[in-house]
Design brief:
Elements (H helix, E strand, L loop, with lengths): L3 E6 L8 H9 L10 E9 L2 E9 L8 H5 L5 E4 L2 E4 L9 H5 L6 E3 L2 E3 L5 H5 L5 H5 L5 E5 H15 L7 E3 L9 E5 L16 H14 L4 H42 L1
Parallel strand pairs: 1-10
Antiparallel strand pairs: 1-8, 2-3, 4-5, 6-7, 9-10
The structure holds iron/sulfur cluster (3 copies).
The site of one iron/sulfur cluster has 13 residues, from helix 2.
Length: about 260
């Protein structure tokens, strides 16, 4: 089976928003929804400052935490991409909790994120964002070829950007969006070592196999159980934070009295 990937060359992105607009129009996204966020950045240390853009989107992780956590199979892997079938999403928010890049959001009670233009690529076309980018910052194709191109580009910019590197070759098990970074990931607001929460693996081993292959009624029941489990988890977290705050207050009162 083909394993595809995007190339996202941050050193070439000029923040023109063409990809964002093409994605919204091509995918007929509802008003207020967008799958790409362009965030202006100032990099470096004064007086050596430079401007640039973070091009934030789903990174299509090979070992996708969102897929591992999803109890209904709404999120799944295909051709190296992380797809989303909103029809079977039950809005439990597990994907939003576990994504190491904070990508999915709940819109109208269901998860929302880039699905790598599944319909367009199935028909042999290129994703809307790729075909629209005017500066060749985006490409889509076979992952091995994308990786080779990313390394070629890094070599070509090393004189200008000595800290340039490829990001996404191995991070989080390898990303479906291979990036050319002009600087270290931390400088560009990306995690140096994106990690999948440990609990996700347990969840994947215990709950997800139980949900897959069930009747739609069973999936709904499993989904409701997931929502309840999440609510309990959030209550436990709140209690824990309240206990910590109370302990800190007590501690500072004792120190004040001493
Ligand atoms: S970036 Fe987040 S939403 Fe996208 S595949 Fe990875 S875990 Fe899933
Ligand atoms: S691949 Fe398609 S859905 Fe994803 S950001 Fe690009 S245009 Fe939007
Ligand atoms: S279209 Fe290309 S250059 Fe413009 S913002 Fe998107 S990635 Fe950057």
């Amino acid at each position: 089976m083909a394993t595809n990937a995007f190339l996202l060359d941050i050193s070439r992105c000029i923040g023109c928003q063409a990809c964002t607009a093409a994605c919204m129009t091509g995918n007929e996204l509802p008003a207020g929804t967008q799958y790409i966020q362009l965030i202006e950045q100032t990099r470096g240390v004064f007086p050596n400052l430079a401007g640039g853009f973070k091009n934030h989107r789903c990174y299509h992780c090979t070992d996708a935490a969102c897929v591992a956590a999803c109890p209904t199979g709404a999120l799944f892997k295909e051709d190296g991409m992380t797809r989303l079938n909103r029809e079977v999403c039950i809005g439990c928010e597990y994907c939003t909790d576990v994504c190491p890049f904070d990508v999915p959001h709940i819109v109208d009670g269901r998860s929302s994120k880039c699905d790598a233009c599944a319909r367009v690529t199935a028909a042999g076309g290129e994703p809307w964002c790729v075909r629209t980018c005017p500066s060749d910052a985006l490409r889509y194709g076979d992952r091995e070829e994308i990786l080779a191109e990313a390394h070629r580009r890094v070599e070509a910019i090393l004189t200008r950007y000595p800290n340039a590197r490829v990001y996404g070759e191995t991070e989080a098990g390898g990303l479906g969006v291979v990036m050319v970074l002009p600087d270290a990931p931390e400088v560009l607001d990306l995690p140096a070592n994106p990690e999948v929460p440990l609990l996700v693996n347990t969840w994947q081993k215990v709950v997800q196999p139980a949900a897959l292959g069930l009747t739609s009624l069973s999936v709904v029941v499993t989904g409701v159980a997931a929502v309840i489990a999440r609510r309990n988890h959030m209550q436990e977290l709140k209690q824990l934070h309240a206990q910590e705050a109370a302990a800190q207050k007590e501690d500072s009162q004792e120190r004040g009295a001493a």
